[in-house]
Amino acid sequence: SDTFIAAVYEHAVILPRAAQETVSPEDALALMNKNMDILEGAIKEAAQQGAHIIVTPEDGIYGWVFTREAIYPYLEDIPDPEVNWIPCTDPTRFAPTPVLERLSCMARNNSIYVVANIGDKKSCNSSDPSCPSDGRYQYNTNVVFDSEGKLVARYHKYNLFMSEEQFNYPKEPEAVTFETHFGKFGIFTCFDILFREPAVVLVSELQVDTVLFPTAWMNVLPFLTAVEFHSAWAMGMRVNFLASNTHNTIMSMTGSGIYAPDGARAYYYNMKTEDGRLLIAELDSHPRLSPASPPAVSWSSYASSVEKCIPDERDFSGLIFYDQFTFTELTKPEGSITICQKDLHCHLSYKMAEKREDEVYVLGAFDGLHVVEGQYYLQICTLLKCKSTDLSTCGQPVETAQTKFDMFSLSGTFGTNYVFPEVLYSDVQLAPGEFEVLNDGRLISKTKPTKPVVTVTLFGRWYEKDHL
Ligand SMILES: NC(=O)CCCC[C@@H]1SC[C@@H]2NC(=O)N[C@@H]21
User: Fold this and answer.
1) Whole-prediction pTM value?
2) Residue whose CB lies within 8 A of the most ligand 1 atoms, among 218, 219, 228, 378, for a mutation test
3) What are the φ and ψ backbone dihedral angles of 358, each rounded to 5 degrees?
4) Is the CB–ligand 1 distance for residue 161 below 6 Å?
5) Catalytic amino acids?
6) Assembly ipTM
């Protein structure tokens, strides 16, 4: 088919009463069934609305903050999909797997692909020198069932966040794909998105059309809020991206979406209530073949051609999420300015509808290794609103703005081809259809931006530099 209907469900997970305590297998299953009751409602509704596939969140069936022992009763031994198995019709073929059986039946009974995140366990012994002392590997795992309930994909998360002490790393990254009549799919989980393997391999080498992305994502402004970063990854990598987040406002977890390469088709961000939400939208099955497919981008072309920047005494430093940026203030209502850090030169042309006295914007550059919660090399050019008119607040999280821009054009001399374009309006709103990336690397407003701007950012990841 040329198009398909995608669904993602943001789920307010029912958490175990004390995730640090070990419960019986019966109590573990009872909690998982409560979550699956809600997921089943969403799956039925999605199927009724014609969806071909639905994604549910990471940790969506049992929650988080477990110890290694406490999560054990929640785990099932998930076979390799090669075994060709429909748990719904053949539940006793392997060791008891009530969660796989129920998920498989939800897919089969509703004729829809179902994507879920659960825990896998694999026993091992001393013949394996890496076998953990408790005699088992435990993996954070995504599973996919096709519309007949067959297990078609199993993916073990490779980039665990802050080590996720309850889980093991798989020995090698797994690039998991499967084919459907509505395109080729790849799958990875949450923190994986910041690294080359398996995320970039799936898109750049295995050429998937759509990425399935269960996540439990804590939002961090100004660049790493879920809807902002995940939609930017879809655009930068030129794939469809189905992001299903958990919903827990205390943990700043909200933000799910159905993203196409040219912008969001549907998204949900809600820090006001504890409601989950089903999103449904139509996507191209093969977005690269679509006439709307954005062109390949030469990211540093434009910025390399403009006047080089000369450090100015008014430039200053500030931290954004532990990284030291170099900033320059936008002092005029319109203009063209540059800022540099190391090899990265960032260039901005802009026009504000009016220059307000009570809001300050800066252009910032960062070229360096981010070292908090994992190491990853970044090159970032950003236009952003400061928290107050005091320049020492520039880089602190800001959600709202009142300044409207008539136009913006942002570019940088990136050393990497992996650059994710972000535009975030006031109140954590995206700007689908209102901006684009030109093939010379400029991120430009297509029309006059309709809402006040919080940030316009080119977020570059330079994977080769992570370990230098
Ligand atoms: N479950 C996960 O793997 C969560 C990782 C996503 C967190 C993103 S990536 C780095 C930022 N730090 C946060 O606290 N949230 C952001």
Assistant:
1) 0.98
2) 218
3) -95, 5
4) yes
5) 58, 157, 190
6) 0.98
